[in-house]
């Protein structure tokens, strides 16, 4: 009951407000073109008819929510998943490279973090460059990486996954460095009194302590690698994937398609973040954590 | 005698590599050809410098094993590693793609010495503040320099095609030669699209966060949505914005506004909750109004969070503007240049643009970080408590 009052009601009110605003904007933004159409057809519709027509254009400036929902539903559930028009097909293309890049990125981030925590030289020399590496707008470089790798003969999943890797290793590395250093001095001293070796301290103290940090940063990383995969699809000549769908929509002014692809991307993002959250809860429970 | 020596694995390995390089002989293919037919008089690189390079590495490696003071040891290593690397790079000019195993042995040995140098420097614990600061700058700088040296040496030694990966020296030359074009692109992308979008987006996020703070209902409704939206691939709205606002910088600024809005909103709301009950109770006992509490206690306390958002947004803004240019621009701008020069296979121009973007991103981030130090000087992470 409490969550209904403190969460569901406010969220749904705001969402409803957004939908209403969206309809208003759709009418306002589509009106000039509709007026133009009516003048050419020599019609003088009533206000009500006019509004309905603005919400039913084929290539509207801003498609109405129900148009997007209809397009999304058609392309998700009513088409065969192997069809090139199916959003499931495109989402899968994006999802597979996202997952591959995310896996690489997480492993790379963990390896870097372990190195930084254990080797002073790396801590001093590598950390500033890891931070600097993220000021490079890698997404801007994505097309070049794709084109250059294609010139060498590497195409398909790997180039897209590389971009996702680059975007996702950073949050994991930074979070894991924090996590591996999170055990307090007292706990480290206790391990010393047990005469624990470095490896034992690592496996029995540092790794368990870093798990919450790992999952928190993995949530950020998975969203980042999805963005990487989508942008990585832009220069492949619109073959497959949500990014390709966006680009094709932009070329042919298929606004409804663009919005449906955006919705699909958002659904994938929400699913990915939810999956990481679920994994985190399962691992925490397995490690004996209690819900706070 | 052994007590006077202080061997390190990097120096030992470097010595071993020097010996291997000497045993294997010719550094490059032309040198091997010249030895095979001495009469032909084939020109080859490292005619006189080969012994200097290997000698320099060997001496530096041996010297570093003596019980020197750390600074002297670092200096010996620095001269040995970078002298050898410089001679290697200077010698390969004109003979790209002919390097043989000893070339890479010498390169690896020099790199190991460089690593040892960084290791010695980073284990130093100077007492003076400025010395620590200098060390914190020199160590990453050396690391970056070695990244460039290895890139240059491998690309030129192995003769990797220019299309695939140009050497840093070529990229540097390209930057110097096309400064006007780069300047024009920076003006279009950064000074128009990024700055306008960044300022408007952050300001809007901030204002909405204050509103959400004032009205509990709004906060409860907006924060879950904001958290969800920050995980979404917002960059996808770029084509829509280009359709709505045209090809010029306004559409890019719109993308930047949308991308920077939500991180600012979420972080500011989190920051406004950062002041403790005790402090807020104190403000109540002073009978201060909502706005007085906000400006004198809660906004300053939210400073670290707000600056965190500003930092995140500085890179997001750059990405947003550049990617939005892929969907259509006037014939100027960093994203436009990158996508067209890739098509024309002018990879060095692309890299030049990337270098400029990285520089701009770092400067942007650095300015925000400096502002943060000035504005939240009281915070433990900056006081260095």
Plain-language structure description:
- The complex is a heterodimer of chains A (292) and B (385).
- Chain A is an all-alpha fold and 292 residues long.
- Chain A has eleven helices and no strands.
- Chain A has two domains: 2-62; 87-286, MetI-like fold (Orthogonal Bundle).
- Chain B is mainly α and 385 residues long.
- Chain B has two domains: 2-160, no CATH class; 175-383, MetI-like (MetI-like fold, Orthogonal Bundle), CATH 1.10.3720.10.
- Helices cover 77% and strands 0% of the residues of chain B.
- The two termini of chain B are 45 Å apart.
- The relative contact order of chain B is 0.08.
- The model of chain B has no long low-confidence stretch (mean pLDDT 81).
- The interface between A and B is large, with 59 and 60 residues.
CATH topology of the largest domain in chain A: MetI-like fold
- State the assembly state of the protein chains: heterodimer
Overall 3D form of chain B: flat
Q: What is the total tally of β strands of chain A?
A: 0
* Number of beta-strand segments of chain B: 0
What letter string, H or E per element, gives the SSE order of chain B? HHHHHHHHHHHHHHHH
Task: Look at the helices and sheets of chain B and give the structural class.
Answer: mainly alpha
CATH architecture of the largest domain in chain B: Orthogonal Bundle
Q: List the secondary-structure elements of chain A in sequence, H or E.
A: HHHHHHHHHHH
Low-confidence stretches of chain B: none
């Amino acid at each position: 009951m409490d969550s209904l009052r403190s969460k569901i009601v406010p969220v749904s009110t705001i969402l409803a407000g957004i939908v209403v605003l969206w309809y208003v904007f759709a009418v306002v933004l589509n009106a000039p073109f509709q007026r133009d159409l009516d003048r050419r057809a020599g019609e003088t519709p009533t206000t009500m008819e006019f509004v309905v027509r603005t919400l039913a254009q084929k290539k509207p400036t801003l498609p109405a929510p129900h148009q997007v929902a209809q397009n999304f539903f058609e392309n998700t559930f009513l088409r065969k998943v192997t069809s090139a028009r199916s959003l499931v097909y495109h989402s899968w293309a994006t999802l597979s490279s996202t997952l591959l890049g995310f896996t690489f990125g997480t492993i790379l981030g963990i390896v870097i973090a372990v190195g930084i925590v254990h080797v002073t030289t790396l801590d001093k020399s590598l950390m500033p460059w890891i931070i600097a590496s993220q000021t490079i707008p890698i997404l801007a470089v994505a097309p070049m990486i794709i084109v250059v790798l294609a010139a060498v003969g590497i195409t398909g999943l790997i180039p897209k996954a590389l971009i996702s890797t680059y975007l996702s290793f950073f949050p994991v590395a930074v979070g894991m460095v924090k996590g591996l250093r999170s055990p307090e001095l007292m706990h480290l001293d206790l391990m010393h009194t047990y005469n624990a070796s470095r490896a034992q301290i690592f496996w029995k103290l540092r790794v368990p302590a870093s798990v919450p940090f790992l999952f928190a940063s993995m949530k950020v990383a998975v969203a980042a690698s999805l963005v990487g995969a989508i942008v990585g699809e832009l220069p492949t000549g619109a073959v497959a994937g949500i990014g390709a769908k966006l680009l094709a929509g932009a070329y042919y002014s298929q606004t409804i398609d663009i919005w449906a692809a955006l919705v699909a991307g958002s659904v994938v993002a929400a699913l990915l973040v939810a999956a990481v959250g679920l994994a985190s809860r399962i691992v925490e429970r397995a490690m004996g954590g209690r819900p706070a | 005698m052994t007590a006077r020596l202080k061997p390190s694995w990097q120096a030992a390995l470097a010595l071993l590599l020097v010996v291997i390089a000497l045993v294997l002989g010719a550094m490059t293919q032309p040198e091997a050809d010249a030895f095979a037919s001495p009469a032909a008089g084939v020109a080859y690189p490292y005619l006189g410098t080969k012994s200097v390079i290997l000698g320099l590495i060997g001496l530096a490696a041996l010297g570093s094993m003596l019980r020197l003071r750390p600074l002297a040891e670092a200096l010996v290593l620095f001269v040995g590693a970078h002298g050898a690397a410089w001679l290697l790079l200077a010698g390969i000019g004109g003979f790209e793609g002919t390097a043989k195993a000893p070339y890479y042995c010498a390169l690896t040995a020099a790199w190991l010495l460089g690593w040892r140098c960084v290791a010695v420097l980073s284990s130093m614990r100077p007492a003076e503040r400025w010395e620590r600061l200098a060390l914190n700058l020199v160590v990453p700088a050396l690391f970056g320099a070695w990244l460039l040296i290895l890139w240059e040496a491998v690309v030129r030694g192995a003769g990797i095609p220019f299309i695939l990966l140009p050497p840093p020296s070529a990229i540097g030359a390209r930057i110097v030669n096309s400064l006007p074009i780069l300047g024009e692109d920076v003006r279009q992308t950064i000074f128009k699209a990024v700055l306008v979008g960044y300022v408007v987006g952050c300001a809007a996020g901030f204002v909405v966060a204050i509103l959400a703070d004032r009205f509990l209902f709004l906060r409860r409704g907006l924060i879950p949505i904001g958290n969800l939206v920050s995980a979404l691939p917002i960059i996808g709205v770029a084509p829509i914005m280009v359709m709505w606002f045209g090809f010029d910088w306004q559409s890019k600024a719109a993308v930047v506004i949308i991308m920077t809005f939500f991180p600012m909103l979420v972080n500011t709301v989190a920051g406004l909750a950062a002041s403790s009950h005790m402090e807020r109770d104190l403000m109540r006992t002073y009978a201060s109004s909502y706005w007085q509490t906000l400006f004198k206690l809660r906004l300053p306390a939210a400073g670290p969070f707000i600056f965190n958002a500003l930092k995140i947004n500085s890179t997001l803004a750059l990405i947003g503007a550049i990617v939005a240019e892929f969907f259509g621009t006037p014939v100027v701008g960093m994203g436009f240049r990158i996508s067209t020069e890739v098509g024309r296979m002018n990879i060095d121009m692309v890299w030049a643009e990337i270098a400029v973007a990285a520089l701009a991103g770092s400067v942007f981030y650095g300015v925000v970080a400096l502002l943060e130090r000035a504005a939240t000087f009281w915070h433990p992470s900056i006081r260095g408590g």
